[in-house]
Write the structure tokens for this entry.
Amino acid sequence: MNHNVRIGVVGCGNVAMGSYLPSVRQLQAQGMRVQITAACDVDESRRDAVRQRFGIETFSTRYEDIIQSPEVDVVLVLTSMPQHGTITHAALEAGKHVMVEKPMAMTLEEAAQIVELARHSPGYLLCAPHVVLSETYQAMWRRVHNGEIGKVLSARGLYGWSGPNWGAWYYQPGGGSLFDLGVYNITTLTGLLGPVQRVMAMSGIAIPERVVNGERVPVRTDDNFQLLLDFGESVFAVVSTGFTMQRYRCAGIELYGSEGTIQLIGEDWDPKGYELWRNDAGCWQVYESAGRWRWTDGLRHLIECVQTDTPPIITPEHAYHVLEIMLKSLESGQDGMAKPIESSFVSPTFGERTQTEAAHLIHDPGRT
Ligand SMILES: NC(=O)c1ccc[n+]([C@@H]2O[C@H](COP(=O)([O-])OP(=O)(O)OC[C@H]3O[C@@H](n4cnc5c(N)ncnc54)[C@H](O)[C@@H]3O)[C@@H](O)[C@H]2O)c1
């Protein structure tokens, strides 16, 4: 491509205005050849904000105008979740590259069509979350796959907060904490451990009413989840997620192996590094991340893929597998039954790291 990669944004709400549009400015400041050429929101009042804050002159209330525009190479889908599938499908059909926030769609039928379309369409499809792109994730992946903690036997993921006070859709069917938050842990755990074979969940509405944009809103979809994931060969993981947690201070991801333990420091969408225990070392080794990676960096990755004509590391098949786990978890939360997972995917692999990691050693006080 011998011109700037041109982005059309669909959905100019919280995450667009607060994160992705500022991140494009940062990419430009770092010398990337990228620009936003058009924006769209069904809410006409966003027009002035995107022009004044980001200098985007072309605005429409119809997403069709964005996906049909010859001035757009990449469609960035940042609407509320129920619209993701339709817009992503249409943009791929129009031959565009697409980055869609999670989840790619809200039904397996819709997601399967999108995965199939992406196999044959000229445009790349990148589905959030982008956790497998972080340097911390990839360092952990190498440790695990080099056998440094032995065979992984069990794992745990945690991500929650008190919940959004904007976007009433977060509390309606087609929203909910599992699709907004649990999706990160499930993507990380399946990336590290491979496909899930079976899922079981307890879920419910723990807080039946919320205040959104100053108004009381009844909650109509589950906001509180405990998931059990079965990876086969008696390897299990637990994921705790909900709009039900005020604060916590513990690892977002923990893997327990036959020879050691690895724990992420911070959250998988905002990793600060990891801690490694190996029985043969007899101490905790702490690896801090350089902190360069941002959760919006999937967009940088897609732009690089477009510029170099290289398929993205994150595959639509992985996002589909994660969606199936989430939808079957919802069903399991309703009827209390374990659900088999039918889909599979191949986890991305990573070669030897190019930079040496600096470690702090913490000696185990129980050993001399
Ligand atoms: N807010 C966050 O911190 C955060 C972080 C990571 C990912 N996400 C994801 O980003 C997406 C957006 O979240 P948000 O918090 O910005 O939501 P939001 O409600 O603030 O914004 C969504 C916007 O999409 C617009 N919209 C809805 N349907 C549309 C359509 N058919 N065409 C064009 N515009 C349409 C709405 O008018 C609204 O302005 C969600 O998928 C969410 O899960 C959010």
